[in-house]
Amino acid sequence: MASNNEQTNSHSHFPWSHVVGFGLSIVLTLLALWIGFYSGFSLTTIMVIVVGLALVQATIQLLMFMHITESEDSTVQVGTILYAVFIAVAVVAGTIWVMSFGMHYM
Amino acid sequence: MRLDEFFVTGDPLIYGADVSIALTLIGAIFALTYFKKWKWLWSEWLTTVDHKKLGIMYIIAAVLMLFRGGVDAMLMRAQLTVPDAGFLDAKHYNEIFTTHGTIMIIFMAMPFLIGLINVVVPLQIGARDVAYPFLNAVSFWTFFMGAMLFNISFVIGGSPSAGWTSYVPLAGLELSPGVGQNYYLLGLQIAGIGTLLTGINFLVTILKMRVPSMKLMQMPIFTWSSLITMVIIIFAFPVLTVALALMTFDRLFGSHFFTMMDGGMPMLWANLFWIWGHPEVYIVILPAFGMFSEIISTFARKTIFGYKAMVYSMVIIAGLSFLVWVHHFFTMGAGGAVNSFFSITTMLIAVPTGVKIFNWLFTLYKGRIRFTTAMLWALAFIPNFVIGGVTGVMLAMAAADYQYHNTYFLVAHFHYVLISGTVYACFAGLYFWYPKMFNHRLNERLGKWSFWIFVAGFNLCFFPMYFLGLAGMPRRVYTYGVADGWMSMNVLATFGGLLMGIGFLILVYNIYYSFRYSPRETTGDPWDARTLEWSTPAPVPHYNFAHLPEAKGHDAFWIMKEEIKQGKKPEKKPYKPIHMPSYSGVPVVMSVFFFIAGFGMVFSWNWMSILGLIGVLATMVIRSFDYDKGFYVSVEEIEEHEKTT
């Protein structure tokens, strides 16, 4: 049910932040690809830069598409972010831990 | 590509399927034309954004998929009944268990549950539709087109045959060179869009669209379980999306994420698959838990025992479900520390599940139980699910798992949890909410026949498999020898499978029979139930509630009924115009373009996939410039509706 008319107000202007966010996401992704393929940095440097770019892009997503600054209820926001961080850490760190077996024992 | 490579040839079973598909299509087109129903189909169903109609379409699609997956299962049982059977060859058998697993999980269990969630949850929280009705239609149609794309594989191009888990390197380009695996990747990818959108849609719906008087801790348990499920969907499905995309890159564009050579990590696929896959099993079980809670509470005529414990245990399950995925591949040999950790988390997750079992038992305790068909399914769920759960804890012990892994013991375990959990819940929920959807009940006598035959068949089919597993029969073998000594239990299992098939057919007949002969409902509350969806009249008007209901606590409708019994007169308030969303043809057209793009990618026909993607983009642009703000249901129309019901 598209019940209230508030939406009309927030949609009346041109969605600059979305366009800028979209452009930045593409640029950052291409940049990461370029660094991975052509920069010639050492593996560690590449990893650090790519992870850094990923964090920047995550921030852009949260700010420009996911309206993180627009809510009145901050506890829900904090809770969601904490849960998301928990899942992200569990998945990424867990994967590295699980998949490292080959490196250690082979 | 030659035509005989495009169509699957050489197998009489496939030719039979070709003929039946062609006949069904011709029949459907003929019937629609003869009865002049094309316009009705388009304007009432294909373009609908009404959550009730979308829910019904989800359920119809899921029942069709249950039939398809069930036929697959029957073919497998037929092949395994006797040793050295020549009914199916190895390749065909592999294809069938792959499509059986994928269809049952992705295209049967989830849509069936999401269908019931679609119908019930907005009504339970006193909403007139979901938060994003247009998106809801996109969800359904992308799911449907993804499912169709996956399903045509067996007549066009060939089915995937690497198992529903599609482990690489078997699913990689070298060992699965045909297009079958591409169908798997693209079909799941397109359907996954729909699931993710459903997750976001219902999360927002439940949080933002409740009647203002309903607090979080007063929501019905089914709504709670749906909320938690949506959270899991939102966090788990992106992992599947990424994993599928990476494997698609590997197969179509020559990348090396999961290959054996050039630095790929084949086991990373298994890892990513189960990071999604384990939360996925909770996605298909939590709504089932929610339905059983509603049904048991209604037919025991008691409020649910331990409401808060129910809610918190689901929250804990949601958190833990992301910490157990390695138990699906203990035998990969990740080392003692890893296996111990995931062994313990797996056992931990059994604790909140156990809490829920006790809550259901205590809800039954001293209840005045009515043995309706829906209640019978719920009651059969408890002992059967406990068998599945306990054997699950056996599998959770990493050291013991080395014995059980990849045997029929595992097959028996997950069928015990998925069938007696999810499938029983789908049937129970169908019987329970059927009058809300179709304005008549399913016949109880046929329902009970179907119930007893199916449950007996289920136990006969899968209980022997535990012992087959302990006797060493590996899963996914297409045949076995006489000397293995597995025949007697396989015969039992096949017999049980037949009974399950008969139970399903009786259910289908019941749908037809009840449509013809069941008396139409006169009230919206056939079961003397407790939650707000039953406060709507029969049939439910398209705007759901003429007045938004008031929730004065848990079991809001029960409280209303008690107040009326105590002599409180419902006050007559004047109606106001109701704002509703307009129907739109964009979702179905967009999804057809997704289908075209997917089909093109399956065969690496770039012109076709680019054409499809341009179509998708074009429909998105059309949607972006669509300024339709919906319409108002006039007071006269509401009065007309409310008079007749």
Structure description:
Chain A: This is Quinol oxidase subunit 4. Chain A: Keywords: Cell membrane, Membrane, Oxidoreductase, Transmembrane, Transmembrane helix. Chain A: Catalyzes quinol oxidation with the concomitant reduction of oxygen to water. The complex is a heterodimer of chains A (106) and B (645). Chain A is mostly helical and 106 residues long. Chain A folds into two domains: 1-70; 72-106. Helices cover 77% and strands 0% of the residues of chain A. Chain A is flat. The termini of chain A are far apart. Chain B folds into two domains: 1-35; 36-541 and 552-561 and 577-644, Cytochrome C Oxidase, Chain A (Up-down Bundle). Chain B is 67% helix and 1% strand. In chain B, helix 12 runs parallel beside helix 15 (444-470). The mean pLDDT of chain B is 93. Chains A and B meet through helix 4 and helix 5 of A and helix 8 and helix 9 of B.
Key attributes of the depicted protein:
heterodimer; A: 106 residues; flat; disordered N terminus; B: 645 residues; mainly alpha; Cytochrome C Oxidase, Chain A; 2 domains; 67% helix; 1% strand
